[in-house]
Design brief:
alpha/beta, 11 strands
Length: 219
Amino acid sequence: MDTANVYKKLPLEYIIREPMIRTKRPPAIFMIHGFGSNEEDLFSFAEALPPEYFIISFRAPLHLSSFGYAWYMIHFEEDGTKISDNVQALSSRDLILQSIEEACSLYDLDTKNITLLGFSQGAILSMAIALSYPKKIRNVIALSGYLNKEILKEGYEKENHSATRFYVSHGASDQVIGIDLARKTPTFLKTLGIDYKYEEFPVGHGICPQNFYSFRDWL
């Protein structure tokens, strides 16, 4: 991977696409990749996203020995159960938020128009950030993830979530994160009074073209 354009000015390493339409204090999309991937994965969408956005794609802090990076480790029990390291997830949740806040200052971004675009682990953390700190996030695009209530900030249910919108999608035949987990998300969001759109697509653990066009149009 070419790291020549990977920046190190924030707590997390990242790459950027500057707005193609110049505005004062542009809105921003922060991309949060999945387990075993890197900052270039979701960034492949950047050129096809709305031109007024400043796009920043983060690299997770944990370098895996096999391949890619992770926001937190996943441990496999003998019975096949997957256990997420929630301590690491909480640390990454707050590290991402810190990086977003510093990026807004560094690049003079519109703090009232912040979008999180996350896939898998990145979707889980995107939802956790927005639900824990709703005043800081306007839009969440959560692809192929689920809600992990154990990494939400205490008292999140007492917050006003009316200003945050959620787009949530999942592959109907996802073998990594089962569709049953994803289907719990709309009910949870509804109880908090959150404006959301939920969709399923006939794919596995991935993003098909129809899914991309749908969340782009939603945005």
